[in-house]
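--- STAGE predict ---
source: upstream dedup step, 1 unique chain passed
mode: sequence only
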Amino acid sequence: MGNKIRGVYLVTDRPLCHWHSLAEVVRQAALGGVSLVQLREKETDSREFFELAKQLKEVLTPFQIPLLINDRLDICLAAGADGVHLGQSDLPWREARRILGNDAIIGLSLETKEDFHSLMKIDPNPPLDYLAVSPVFDTETKTNTKPAWGLTGVQWLREKTTLPIVAIGGIKESNAKEVIEAGADSLAVVSAICSAKDPKLTTEILSTKFL
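--- STAGE serialize ---
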């Protein structure tokens, strides 16, 4: 686990897809070199969520890019996705690992430093593929988040863990490099790609920050 998590990580948001369909945004991001895609659907029903997951899995399979599902293990299993991203109030990650098996990619959001300390009390070497710092910067994409970690927060977590770190929240071309330099292995991006007129080019530009 862990060796797959590097580079640009697209988190989908259909209302932000102003110029292209969701499937087309994902396809262009794949052409641009995205390394992971997470399907995040907060408002849709289970049937539509499942159909979207199947559609994106079909788009990504030729590129060998993993598809993760936000929160929903049932959708992950039904659609044959590659794993799940879990928040602090979702199904416990240990149960997700038990159900999905060792080959699934499982990531966990940390909203505060206390979340990390609690995780370490449960298991100092948790079988997780990455930890997500959420949010790094204030963002309009998610409004119910705790105070931003900032670059110093990313640095703090980098000193505490060997697990890959995914940074999410307010990340764009102008600040991507400094987030990587602070210790992030992967940049989770929502609006910068979903709302781009050219998602492929945007993904390519963000990917160059890792070189």
